[in-house]
Specification:
- 69% of the residues lie in helices and 0% in strands.
- It contains 9 helices and no strands.
- The chain is globular and about 50 Å long.
């Protein structure tokens, strides 16, 4: 039985992607499909976790993670040594884009006076004031700074961050310091010293 992501209950996870009808699987050979499947099984949980740290919605993060793998499937030239780095970079970017989409939507809903939705217990528990502030600042600062901070906060080494963002590993420390300063400056500007 085939189910869409919206039909998967909260406790379940999606462990396969059936995308042949969407992008013309006939043109892909079996070896490439096998590689994509192996990469998906090896990296899906970590990519979904990276996105979930940004958007704070595990179900939406899983949907976005599948989108990342569909993009990978469409971009055959990314295969090789840099695939894992590309996946992390794409995951962080799609998470930041979703965060910005949510911020715009919230702003427009307030502007047009739509009623507040009742929050679920999971949302109440997960949505603390400090997390909201951090997410807002991450959505405002330069994308590269946000990417650096998010990847580093996921306990990635400098070398892994460099590989994910295609940056010289020797410059990560400096770039990370600048990203932290940009984050702090924007945070203090909005919320004052904490």
């Amino acid at each position: 039985m085939r189910r869409t992501l919206s039909q998967i209950s909260p406790g379940e996870r999606c462990y396969g992607v059936d995308a042949p009808s969407e992008a013309g699987a006939e043109s892909k050979d079996a070896e490439i499909q096998f590689d994509i499947e192996a990469i998906f099984h090896a990296q899906y949980a970590r990519i979904a976790r990276v996105i979930a740290r940004v958007v704070r919605d595990p179900a939406r993060a899983e949907e976005l993670a599948v989108e990342v793998f569909l993009k990978l499937w469409r971009r055959q030239q990314t295969f090789g040594d840099k695939t894992q780095g590309w996946l992390y970079r794409a995951a962080v970017r799609i998470g930041i884009d979703e965060l910005r989409r949510q911020t715009r939507r919230t702003r427009y809903e307030r502007l047009f006076g739509f009623g507040e939705k009742a929050l679920t217990p999971e949302q109440i528990r997960a949505a603390t004031e400090e997390q909201e502030r951090v997410r807002l600042v991450l959505g405002i600062i330069h994308r590269r700074h946000a990417e650096l901070l998010l990847l580093r906060s996921d306990d990635m080494s400098y070398e892994e961050v460099a590989n994910a963002l295609d940056i010289n590993p020797a410059s990560i420390g400096t770039l990370l310091s600048r990203a932290q300063q940009a984050f702090r400056k924007e945070y203090v500007k909005r919320y004052g010293e904490q």
